Amino acid sequence: MIGAVDIGGTKIAVGIVDDGGRVVRRAEAPTEAERGYAVGISKIAKMLREALRETGAAVRGIGIGSTGMLDPIRGEWLDVDFLPGWEHKSPVQDLSREFGVRVAMENDGDAGALAEAYWGAGKGKSRMVYVTIGTGIGGGIILDGHLYRGVAGSHPEFGHHVMEASGPECTCGLRGCWEALAAGCSMEKWYQEHCPAEDQNGKVVTARGICDLARKGNGFAKQAVEREGTYLGLGLANLIGMFVPDVIVLGGGMMQSADLYLGKIREVIRSGCRFVPAEKTQIALASLGEDANLIGAAMAWRHRYEQETFAAG
Ligand SMILES: [Zn+2]
């Protein structure tokens, strides 16, 4: 059994994950980052202790997946927008002291990638790119069976590759990033700007709502979906051009309506990528659902300390 912690800007989930990748116990609480790190870490420790008591299990390690920029080797946060005041705090050291086991922390996109590579849609593949499309675009890269890391253990942010130099401003400092064009809020913004105000009845329509309208035949919603599929396809074509992986696994809230986008995505990829065998790269949907991040946190620990790697494809 491995203890698993998933730290996001709005909620923290804690669980116990068995060696088959099943979450046998799970608890959740709001992050309340503004109350400070000390409150946050004692809440995590308390939730873990309760989960352990309920299962009667002993854990051999604890894995953490977290939002934000972090140093996975030192096990501390760097610049974390969503967790103000948590910079340079080390949950790895603190939980290790508290529970007497080794602790590993990874960016949550990397943790999700590890989970899908080992137990999910990337199983059996050694070159995988995992992409989550929700309010932002993130993910992780598995190359030759290992998690890819940049300099100093850094996590690459392919959601911020630029597609349109004069596109909308992005939080990263550039314009026209994939995330700024294809994340859920970009689709919502496009719809608000293009659909006549009287059709919107003063209501903000979510990406999910736009998809429902598109299914009912609403013209503007169908255009928004078409635009979304195009930008998703372009970003994925770029990833195929750069990595030509065995598989790209798509997850995140936007993929709950994947059936609306996949046709366009495949069309865009087919129309380009002529210089690589793009048809050999499988486009698959993530298969672990909402437990992916907790399973990924546990997998991050196994990848780090038990040298678990992924089958050569
Ligand atoms: Zn950006």
Structural class: alpha/beta
Helix content: 25-40%
Globally, the shape reads globular
Radius of gyration: 20 Å
Number of helices in the DSSP assignment = 10
- How confident overall, as mean pLDDT? 93
In N-to-C order, the SSE pattern is EEEHEEEHEHEEEHHHHHEHEH
- Major beta sheet, specifics? 5 strands, mixed
Query: What fraction strand?
Result: 15-25%
Strand order of the largest sheet: 3-2-1-4-7
Give the number of DSSP strands: 12
Small molecules held by this entry:
zinc ion
Given as residue ranges, the uncertain stretches (5+ residues, pLDDT < 50) are: none
| Termini Cα gap | 28 Å
Topology:
Blueprint: E1 2-7, E2 11-17, E3 23-30, H1 37-55, E4 61-66, E5 70-71, E6 76-77, H2 91-99, E7 102-107, H3 108-119, E8 128-133, E9 137-143, E10 146-147, H4 178-182, H5 184-194, H6 197-200, H7 207-215, H8 219-243, E11 247-251, H9 258-271, E12 282-285, H10 292-305
Parallel strand pairs: 1-4, 4-7, 8-11, 11-12
Antiparallel strand pairs: 1-2, 2-3, 5-6, 8-9, 9-10
Helix pairs in contact: 3-10, 5-8, 7-8, 8-9
Residues 160, 170, 172, 174, 177, 179-180 line the site of zinc ion.
